[in-house]
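One chain is below:
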Amino acid sequence: MEQMLKKEYGMYAIPEEVMKLIRLEEELNQEGESLDTIGFRPIVHEFAYAITPPDLIPFAHTGGGGIHFGFLTEFDAIKDLHEAPIVCVSPTNDPPIRYVARNIQEFLDLASSVPHVEMIESLWPCENTTAMETIQQEYASELDVEWAQKRDKIRRRFQATFHTKLLPPQQYVQEVLEERSTETAIPTYDGLGVVGAITSDWPGRRYSFDDQRQQDEKELARMRHFLANATTKEQLAFVRDAYYWYILTPDYHQGVLNVVVELLDSLRLTTIVNRIEDRV
C-alpha cells in the first residue's frame, strides 16, 4: 500500500485527511464495520480507469460502478493538495467527469451532508433542489431500521473524525461549478477545462479531433503540428480532450497516447508521465 501511494502521489505530500480516512477504515474493520456503509472507501491500491484524468490522484471510491474521487492537480500547477479541487469520476455514466468541490475539507463536508456518498455523483446534473431532496428522502425510506441506525453510526464517526459541517449539497455543487466556469480559460470535453487568463490577442485554440477517432500517421502528424505551434494552455487542453475523445491505453489508441506522453515530457511534467506509465 505504501509503495502504491508514493507512486500515485509522486511529488506531493499525502494529505493527512487521506491517512485519517485509511486509519478510520482500519479501525472500523477491526470492529466488523466499514465506511462502505456510507459509500466512501479509501483507495489503497491502484485505482484508475482510462477516462481518469492524468492529473487526478484518486483517494476514495464509493464501491459501486467504479465511481471514485480524486485531487485535481491542474497538471501540477497546484503545489499543496489541500488546495486542489476534488473531481468525481463516474466511468459508466454520462458525463463521466464531474467537478464537485473546491478542496478536500469542503468535499468531506459535502460527503457528510448526504446519506450515502455515491449521491454526490447524482447531485452534479440535478439543478432542482426539491428533486434532490426527494431523492435523499426516498433513499432513507428504503433502508430498514437496523441498517439505517448502522449507517447513521458510521456517518457520525466520519463527521467526528473530520470535524465536518453540514452543507446544502445541491446549492454547494452548483456554486463550485459556476466558479469553475468563470476561471476556465479554455473549455474541454471533460468539463474541467484549463484554468487561467487568456489574452485578447490569443483567445485559446482547441484541436479539432477526427470524428472517426483515427490515429493513423496522417492524424498523428496533424496533432504534432498543432502542438508544436500551441501555447501551453492549448497543449494542456489537448491532453484533456484526448483523454476524453480516445481510450488512451496500449490496447486501443497507443499512437495518441504516445503523442500525449511526448508532450508531457516536453513540458517536464515528470510526475504525470510516471503516473500514466504506472497506470497503463
Strands lie at 41-42, 56-61, 68-72, 86-89, 97-101, 184-186, 194-195. The chain has two domains: 2-178, 184-279. Residues 184-279 form one domain.
